[in-house]
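Kindly review this record before class:
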Amino acid sequence: MYRIPYGKSFLEFSLPPDMRATLVVSRPTTPLEDATAAIREALDHPIGSSPLRDLAKPGNRACIVFTDVTRASPDDLLVPALLRELENAGVRDEDITLLCGIGMHRPSSKEEKVTKLGAEVVARYRVIDNEPQNPAALMNLGVTPGGVPVLIHRAAVEADLLVSTGIVEPHQYAGYSAGGKTVAVGAAGEPLITHTHGPAFLDHPGTRLGQIEGNPFQDAVNEAARRARLRFILNVVLDDDKRLLRVAAGDPELAFRDLVGFAKSVFEVAIPQQYDIAIGGVGFPKDTNLYQASRAPSYLFFAPVPVVRKGGFFIIPARCEEGAGVGVGEKRFLAAMRDAPNIQSILDDARRNGYPPGQQRAFVMAKVLEESHVIIVGSECPDLVSACKMIPAATMAEALEFASARLGPACRVLIVPRAMLTLPVIRRT
């Protein structure tokens, strides 16, 4: 019997007797016993930087960019710790802005802000969302050598001291998330997001999970963060159960690289071969809509080598109670997937005409579906799954039966309970 996340609970299933399974999980790592003490220690001894309390001065305008509700970053611990540093430096409450880095996702609700930051913080400080489509809210910081237009939210750019939080984990485009990305994408304008998520970037061989060197997306993120004058980050690595494994603060690039090195030792797991079927768990909050849940098959596909052979299946349990999602990007994803006559037309149109932010998820999923099949299990919107050119199944048994009918009963199955954290890497001995 196997068990993988599904919503806020779990789904249990068995494999047919002829299927051979390999279970892949991140390397077991003892979580830090006292998260608050670990965060305080990181702030007291930042990497490549003076402590935040020494960088800040009375009269400074400060902006903290924090992650939105789709990220598991423990901002309810991180942001108050940063606020205490600013308070100790004499920065006034009214000079502090907390900017939710929603990127092109939907605006966050008051309840979500409270969940992320705590009721006391939301009541005490100015808390706003990024406005990627509002020119008046953005500042133009020029174009990078790689041709990326850098537009960042005015509250971040006009701050005397810009700080960000984030969770370092495998990321489809950046290799690993957090670092400068919380500002450079979360607080960015639509043109920046459009360019970095465009087909030229996503077709580049350096844009892979787990890869930060030679990655044009990571290079663009770092340059945009530098232009926005990001001075200090507080980032974490969490385990599969969202417990704190490591925390680092300080210089945006040096502290980030320290955490990436640690994250690789936890999340990257060797496997011997490609498989016929990969079963990937998602869980809350990523499986609340199809836009986010579809990251699981694309993460497994965009590993350094796809974990499923051509013609194979990805099976992903996801409730998708929000349908495809309600943000601008999610709606664009749905329209592109639903309205295209076939997968090849999504790819051809994107490479010929480009696409706006959010629609890149359709391009990425088209690349997955060009070579494999995706079954979404237990979705509350099976018709929408079908319209997006994926296969709905009510149960795991139904999904496995569907796959085995096409591949034969003796399938090799890879089970990845946390498909957006664990990164299987094929290493043949």
